[in-house]
Amino acid sequence: MPAKYSHVKKRQSPKKQAKRDQNPHQHKHHEHDHDHGHAHTHAYPGPQVDRCVAHATAMAKLERTISRILLIRFEQDIARLFSTHLYYVALQHLPTFVIRCITVGGPSWVAANTECDEIKDFLRGALSMDMRQAGDRVATKSVLWTYTALRHFAKSQGISICERGGLHSVQLLPHHAALVAHLASLKAHHPPPFSKPPHLGPMTAGIREIIVACKTKYGKGTDWQEKVREGYDRLCELLYRIASEFDVRGYGLLLREKLTEKWCDCGCSTDHLSEVCERTVRMEEEESGVRSGKEREWDGRGTGVSGWETEDEEDLWHVDFEMPGETKHDLPDEMSVGELMELRYMQAEREKEQGNVAFKKGNFLTAIERYKAAYRIEPELPHYQLNLAAAYLKLNDFIEAEKACDLALGQHRSMKGYWRRAQARKGQGRIDDAIADLHGVLRLQHTNKEAFDELCALDPKSTEPSTAVPSSSTSIPSSSSSRPQPSSSSSSSSSAHRLSSKSRYEPLAPRVKPLPFERSPTDDRKLKISSIPVTVDIPVEFLNVPTTGPDKGKGAPGEGQASGRMVSQTFAYPCWERYMVQRVAEQ
């Protein structure tokens, strides 16, 4: 795997910098330090100049095609690799979850309560924390895989590959039409869904683990085993269904920004990528040899689970982040990638907690600044934008509230996101859009009475909730485990209206196959799933280490340089390991 594709800007020489300072109106297509052939002194451009302009235009179109291919294949890699991760979650973590639930609720509790909000919210929270890592874990490999595919295509067309510089994009110019065709084929299957990879086997190991763990308590009978197996199967299906609420197009923001906003039209970005990746490709070929079929068009990873080598696909969420050869001894003043992610989350949560304190005091402007700071630190967790939306709603700034909800819903569609955007759109007088968002709330939680009462207040003539997808100019899926806040109109609803409303939002209930056995009295127990807080001691010097930007990770004390003073940080976040399942006492 190549070194992190960081795209560090090249330092300008003093002479060139002075020349640019003297002519502030000089055309700056981008900040790389080389001549693009844009400047000329011809009063009357001749045929040669026209050819240069045409070549530059063709190169720009080619580069946009290449960057788009990189981006879409990156999103498909996230979907494929996260689908693989979900498979391992189902094998490694869901059995423990089932055991903890049936210990409190009985062997059939999971099967009877798979659709309850408590289980769904637990899965949403843990998956959200996993998705936040998608960009860091997938970006480097995805770029390498897509370069490999471009390289295979080039070799299939008889293009020679430079040993040191790799594939030069100008060599692909005569084959731009083929690249456009490949891009069209990628778009035809986009966005990719999360689904169980077909080449991976059934999850028999998971159910076997549950049965072995429960035999001591329930004996060797088959009746309870059938109930446990039914619950585990339904939970695995629910895991992929909840994952489908997330949208890969909202993650991997660092690479996405590079490919959409900072990709150069002249070809230097592709050439730099080739130079970085070519060494790794040749090294792998020397170690493993050239696989059969490697030089066919578009052979390679990144086109869904049908890509080569997927039968041995690793779970990237359970491998070390660090690059080969990197150790703390080698980089004494930098933090590891894994450490940075933990510190980044703690810093963002600290900002959020300060925002929550200000929000409770009614200092909404201060809360907004703190929530913005949290989002700058951790932009791939949507709940900071949802907090922002709540503060903007308090200030009646409905436009900014809607923008914040759009960003959150662009990662994960959630009840809170749709609810708050409905309030923002209602405040702008956009009733139809608000109604569409309320339908979104009811699709995720069909029993949400507050959303249904609000829907009836906005559209009293409606006899049945629509099943249309909520419209949004910029959004696609986001989420938070919290439920929508009750509206003032809902509290005044009569009990008769509550009874009549149930039959009207019932069509939005998920279609669940009936249980193959009778419900048990223990299936009606209410269970609470809560995260277990963790306390860590952090050197005080680490608290001010930047976790974003070009200097991220720099400034951490090296070996023997720390003062020894530590500060304790306690925080809780949803994950697959630290949680407890408790029975809620009946009122």
Automatic annotation (TrEMBL):
GO terms for cellular component: protein folding chaperone complex. Pfam families: TPR_11. Keywords: TPR repeat. Residues 463-498 have a biased composition (Low complexity). InterPro entries: RPAP3, TPR-like_helical_dom_sf, TPR_rpt. Residues 1-18 have a biased composition (Basic residues). Residues 1-46, 461-524, 545-565 are annotated as: Disordered. TPR repeats lie at residues 348-381. SUPFAM superfamilies: TPR-like (SSF48452). This is Uncharacterized protein. It comes from Lentinus tigrinus ALCF2SS1-6.
